[in-house]
Amino acid sequence: MHIKTYKYPDRTAWESLQQRPELDVTSLFDTVREVLEDVRVNGDEAVRRYGERFDKVRVRDLQVSGEEMDGAESVLDEALKAAIVTACRNIEKFHASQRFEGKKIETVPGVLCWQKSVAIEKVGLYIPGGTAPLFSTVLMLGVPARIAGCGEIVLCTPPDREGKVHPAILFAAKVAGVRKIVKAGGIQAIAAMTYGTESVPKVYKIFGPGNQYIVAAKQLVGLKDVATDMPAGPSEVEIIADGTARPACIAADFLSQAEHGPDSQSILVTTSEPLVDAVQREIRRRLPALPRRDLVEQSLLHSRIIILKNDDEMTDFTNQYAPEHLLIQTANYAALSERIRNAGSVFLGPHTPESAGDYASGTNHTLPTKGYAKMYSGVNLDSFIRKITFQEITEDGLKSLGPVIEIMAANEQLDAHKEAVSVRLEGSSGCPAS
Fold first, then answer.
1. Secondary structure of residue 140 in the 3-state scheme
2. Would residue 68 show up in a list of annotated catalytic residues for this protein?
3. Which of 40, 107, 211, 292 is spaced 20 to 30 Å from 246 by Cα?
4. Torsion over CA of 59, 65, 71 and 75, rounded to 10 degrees?
5. Which of 313, 324, 354, 406 is catalytic?
């Protein structure tokens, strides 16, 4: 298979080369609204009914039991369990370093302001199941939620046709510190966490990836009912490389992204024409051996290789594209990385594959796609907390600052705002100054 290649395109053509596969879910809204409303009204009964329709299993007890959690641990391969524990520790170490420490600031004498970090009390995590259960996402969402101090963490994931949750998901949840796990997938899971049911608590914010129905459901409930992590689209990677890069590594990174799904996108941006030919050969050599070859080939139809003139063009192109994942494999990768302004997560040097961030290095893999890296961060500890501001003003502080407030309020024609200051400065009996 030959990846489309563009040589030295003019800057006016960059926008067209940066087009992503479209994920338009508006046509699903009517179906999604019907399920959301049904679950809102009928609770667990509706969740079970849709589980029977979509997952082909009717689950009696929606919540995973302690026995099921213990049983999952006993059947998992020891090497996999050890890998999950190691990844969990790294994710915990990195996210714990993000804890906020507020300072009390005296803006003027007698006026004290500060922030306090407070966890979102109730959060919901959605974890897709199916043929590729994303147990790594359990760690990426569950660990920072626990570190943040979220009081209630509920995880929803679809069961298999025997009514069981994949043991790796259950073990990862245990390691991450998530105890409430619900056997529900699809729209009905998003609805249950949004509105609450007999078995599923209502949450304040929902996190997690999913198919087009999950994307549509999160869009709709996010309009007025619950917060969500970020807008979602197909996964993507951009690789910046020069003539020093190993073609085999570039091809492997290209293909690893492509196997996420048929709408994924891989882009190679380079200044080296010889590298392009070598990468094309490596992709053709490696592709036949991939178990998910059909998916990869569909993804490669959206993918491209772009040859640019110099480092300036490569960094400008990248900041305009704002990739979810960015790999920089050049001789001067450290210097180039300093010029990156728009990216979800950046992977530097020849020994840093994107899959390290997907699993175990410690950074989070829930990242903004579709150019949203221009205005959104990936999931981090702040995603699970709020910052409340506090202030305290002394009598002398109000005497100093009060006239400023009065003038501003009067000029905005908000007299009651002005009076709230004046009554204190006057020391009236209703609100004495001391």
1. helix
2. no
3. 292
4. 50
5. 324
Mean of all residue pLDDT scores within the chain: 95
Give the pLDDT band (50/70/90) at residue 176.
very high
In the structure encoding, which two tokens stand for residue 346, read together? 């950046």
Question: What SS3 string covers 380-428?
Answer: CHHHHEEEEEEEEECHHHHHHHHHHHHHHHHHCCCHHHHHHHHHHHHCC
Question: Choosing from 166, 260, 302, 325, which is the catalytic residue?
Answer: 325
Nearest of 122, 117, 121 to residue 98 by alpha carbon = 117
pLDDT at 198: 97
Q: Distance from first CA to last CA of the chain, Å, rounded?
A: 81
Please give the structure tokens belonging to residue 418: 């002005």
Residue 430's pLDDT is: 46
d(C-alpha 185, C-alpha 163), whole Å: 12
Task: Extract the tokens encoding 317.
Answer: 């192109």
Residue 367 has which token pair?
């990242």
Closest CA to 177 of 100, 98, 94, 89: 89
Task: Name the residue among 161, 163, 181 with its Cα closest to residue 171.
Answer: 181
Q: DSSP state, 336?
A: H
- Range list of β-strands (E), 251-353: 265-270, 304-307, 325-329, 345-348
Determine phi and psi for 6, rounding to 5 degrees. Answer: -125, 125
Are 364 and 347 in contact by the 8 Å Cβ rule? The answer is no
Q: Is the dihedral of CA 154, 158, 161, 165 positive or negative?
A: negative
Task: Determine the Cα–Cα distance for residues 87 and 155; give it in Å rounded to an integer.
Answer: 19
Contact by Cβ (8 Å): 95, 364: yes
CB atoms within 10 A of CB 228: 22
- 68-76 CB contacts, 8 Å cutoff, 24+ apart: 68/164, 68/165, 68/170, 69/170, 69/173, 69/174, 69/181, 71/167, 72/165, 72/167, 72/168, 72/169, 72/170, 72/171, 72/174, 73/167, 73/170, 73/171, 73/174, 75/167, 76/167, 76/168, 76/171
Catalytic site includes residue 325: yes
pTM for the full predicted model:
0.94
pLDDT digits 0-9 by tens, 108-162: 999 999 999 999 999 999 999 866 789 999 999 999 999 999 999 999 999 999 9
Bridge partners of 37, per DSSP, are none
The burial class, CB within 10 Å (0-12 / 13-18 / 19+), for 355 is middle
> DSSP for 188-257?
HHHHHHHH--SSS---SEEE----HHHHHHHHHHTTTT-EES------EEEEEE-TTS-HHHHHHHHHHH
Beta bridge partners of 205: 123, 227
